[in-house]
Specification:
Elements: H1 3-15, E1 35-41, H2 48-57, E2 61-66, E3 77-83, H3 86-100, E4 105-109, H4 126-133
């Protein structure tokens, strides 16, 4: 595929609202970010939205989710952070805690990565599939 064809396809995907943006993928371990931590937070329900937005706004947070609690698991918010060292992760942990006022949390460091892949949404025959199997499908962003 030529560069011109690639950009034409990219513009078509954006116009059809299949893709919002395109970006590069950084292999964080190869670039020096060897430490990562999932920090789980016990956030009061009435502060969930406000705290979640503050957490998500932190530059070092790559993932931020709210999830259900269970009787033996009170943590509602999950943030993933990356740093060059564990100490760097701890500093980020402290910054988020100070910014949100949330102090009840656990820091879970990765010890081994078994699998990490990106979700593959589109395959080469995706348009053919839609045309033949789902001709009335509506694609929304």
């Amino acid at each position: 595929m030529s560069t011109e064809d690639l950009f034409t396809m990219a513009q078509d995907f954006q116009k059809r609202r299949i893709m919002r943006r395109f970006s590069a993928v950084l292999h964080h371990r190869r670039s020096g970010f060897r430490a990562n931590a999932m920090i789980v937070w016990k956030v009061p329900e009435d502060q969930s939205e406000e705290v979640g937005m503050k957490m998500a706004a932190h530059d070092a947070v790559t993932h931020c989710y709210e999830r259900p609690t269970f009787p033996d698991w009170p943590y509602t918010h999950f943030t993933m952070v990356h740093a060059t060292t564990a100490e760097g992760c701890e500093e980020i942990n402290k910054e988020i805690s100070e910014a949100t006022g949330i102090t009840e949390r656990l820091v879970l460091y990765s010890t081994r990565e078994y699998k990490k892949t990106r979700v593959r949404y589109f395959v080469p025959d995706y348009d053919d599939y839609l045309d033949t199997e789902q001709p009335d499908a509506v694609i929304t962003a």
